[in-house]
Design a protein that fits this description.
The chain is α+β, with helices and mostly antiparallel strands and 325 residues long. It contains twelve helices and eight strands.
């Protein structure tokens, strides 16, 4: 059972919560503290033509379709709760951040292309923005309400490190630089400089990209050549598909090792925080629902409870990601 559906079921069981079947105005499937949730919003969430806004394709079975609507409604209700909770706390950044995010998405598409995309995919712009605000609200809830309350001690971090030391072990790795140029002579001069210093330096007419890759992930042709190189050496130039001359320089061959706690402290801390985030969200949701009056259409209430009872796949976020191409 997902945390969202489990919590919504709890809403209908808590003595302090007001979750009930109720006749509602046409087009309204639920209310949260009197705020209407419309069927068109739930439909937009489920829109299979809208990447990131809902399920990909609707089930043909009528009962399954009703259960899908119930699951989508629960997510939209949680978004509404988050928006209301932020407002009650005096956090009014949802609209501004949602507008900024929409501008970023529009920039990705191009101004007119984005509007055309919404039309072509039959996405209601008003409902898309409503879901975008819900997505942003859950982000802000995590950043400004839940995250500051999470406490991670040094002892917890070291305990996680000891428990997962094998998983943190780094494999044997190459530290490489990919050098390329349209001018083979320029590339040869770069190889000579690299051979003398062992350091990858920028040079005119040569593009440079440096990285680390596990030895096992290097492609067989490159791996055969790299195994024959010493640090400070590079492969003979060859032409790539674009006609550029390319050489791979071996900066270092790094043995398999387990990094010390200090080297991965920040990484481990982020993971411990991530693991604490879900229970913190469940606690917030339980408290919010205990002080919330939710009325649900009788056509969907039993689907909400039936879906909760049957369980389902865990989801990491109640919020849909904004649609992108």
């Amino acid at each position: 059972m997902t945390p969202l559906l489990r919590a919504l079921t709890l809403c209908c069981l808590l003595p302090l919560a007001g979750c009930w079947e109720s006749p509602l105005p046409e087009g309204v499937v639920a209310t949260v503290n009197g705020e209407a949730v419309h069927i068109r919003t739930v439909q937009a969430y489920m829109d299979g033509n809208s990447p990131g806004l809902g399920t990909q394709g609707l089930p043909s079975d009528t009962n399954q379709l009703r259960r899908e609507y119930g699951a989508a409604l629960s997510d939209v209700l949680i978004q509404t709760l988050a928006i209301q909770d932020l407002h009650r706390r005096g956090i009014h950044d949802v609209e501004t951040r949602a507008q900024d995010l929409e501008e970023e998405i529009r920039d990705d598409y191009g101004a007119e292309e984005f509007d055309n995309y919404l039309v072509e995919e039959s996405i209601d712009p008003t409902e898309w923005r409503r879901l975008l605000r819900g997505f942003v609200a859950l982000q802000l809830l995590e950043e400004l309400v839940l995250e500051p309350e999470l406490r991670v001690s040094r002892e917890e971090i070291l305990a996680y490190y000891r428990e997962h030391e094998a998983a943190l072990r780094l494999p044997e790795r190459y530290r490489l630089c990919f050098a390329s140029s349209d001018d083979n002579n320029a590339l040869q001069r770069w190889r000579e400089t690299f051979s003398r210093s062992g350091l990858p330096v920028m040079a005119q007419d040569v593009r440079l990209m440096c990285t680390e890759i596990p030895v096992k992930e290097a492609s067989p042709p490159w791996n055969r050549e790299l195994r024959s190189l010493d640090p400070g050496e590079s492969t003979r130039p060859r032409k790539d598909e674009a006609g550029r001359f390319v050489s791979v320089a071996l900066v270092a061959r790094m043995p398999a090792e387990t990094p010390p706690p200090a080297a991965v402290y920040a990484l481990v801390e982020r993971e411990v925080r991530r693991q604490k985030r879900a229970p913190a969200f469940d606690d917030w949701l339980e408290d919010a629902l205990a002080h919330t009056r939710i009325a649900v259409s009788p056509h969907l209430l039993k689907e909400l409870l039936a879906t909760s009872a049957q369980g389902g796949e865990e989801t990491e976020s109640a919020a849909p990601q904004p649609a992108r191409p």
